[in-house]
Design brief:
This protein is of the alpha+beta class. Among the domains are: 119-202, SH3 type barrels (Roll), CATH 2.30.30; 220-349, Pdz3 Domain (Roll). It is built from 10 helices and 15 strands. The chain has helices spanning 2-15, 19-63, 83-98, 109-116, 120-123, 223-237, 252-260, 262-266, 293-296, 316-326, and strands spanning 133-134, 140-145, 155-160, 165-170, 181-185, 189-194, 197-202, 240-244, 247-250, 270-276, 279-286, 304-308, 311-312, 331-338, 341-349. Strands 8, 9, 10, 11, 12, 13, 14 and 15 form an 8-stranded mixed beta sheet that branches. It has a 4-stranded mixed beta sheet with strand order 1-7-6-5, with no helix packed on it. It has a 3-stranded antiparallel beta sheet with strand order 2-3-4.
Amino acid sequence: MLHAWSSSLRFEDEHGNRGLCIHICRATSMNVILRKYFWIFNLLVITGCAYFAASSIHSCAMIGRPWMAAPAPSSRSSGLPTSSALRRHRDVTTILARNIFCSSCEPAAEVAVKTTSPDPAAAGTPTVDGAAVKSTLNLQLIATLVSEEDKKWSYAALLHPDDNKTRLYPIGKKLAGIEATVVDVLERRVLLSREGRTEYIELGQGGQRQVASTSPRAQPARRPYRSAFSRFTKSIAEGVKKVGPGKYEIKRSALNKVLGNTTMLARSARIVPSVRNGKPNGFKLYAIRPGSVYSLIGMQNGDTIHAINGRAITTPDKALAVYTKVRTASHLTIAFTRRGKAVTHDYTIR
């Protein structure tokens, strides 16, 4: 250490630069002081960091507590309503002023229906006063064909007991020999306009003349129909035999029972018209009842029947024409589509 100090003195003697020696000595003294008291600087830095961290945590905690953010105004102590109370009162007042439920208004539902109803003469439809009543006409509804997409494809098959003929009636057509017009065809009933009122005929039933002697208590009973349907399907099942894939043998007696009981046939499945590319291409089967005629001959839900014995059944008129020819046929071939594939079933009548 003494040797280094002497070298510095000789350097000063040769060049005359004493300031350099003094500067070195001062720098050496400062280094000693910093090394000795540097822990004080570390303590100050740690204290400052702790203060800022505590301040940040306190600010974050106060964000979720708005009730401590500001002191209450002096106006609250004067008995005036608070801002929240005024806001609630203002909201209720607005709702009451709008009167959305109109507690003081008169019921206007029936008036609106009557005033907005179209002119029957201009629309070409009959006047309907009240709900539909059961018809007294001596007719029997055999089947209904309901088209939800296009009403013009909805048909009702009505049996006229006078001549024992079944006729198809679309919506808007007048009944043969009767002053009545079909106004709508539903799944299980047909609505007729007669003498300024709307009448209905249930599926499988006729007018009140046919059921006038029936007791009112017997009307809602369903078990007789269920047992009759079970007996009907059981008798048909005894006359139908599957002999191979898509091949069946049917007794003539079973076929006659099916064709002679169109009510049971109509209730065995739901038949709707099928339209493709804007043109009718057959009839589609839905809701086939287990054990029904359609189930016995191998038909499934979703099958679209296109032709029977090569005759297209794209319209109700064509279907009725085929229906009349089936009675004397000894062989039937049904062409239909199942899941997009063309299928053919053959039936031999014995």
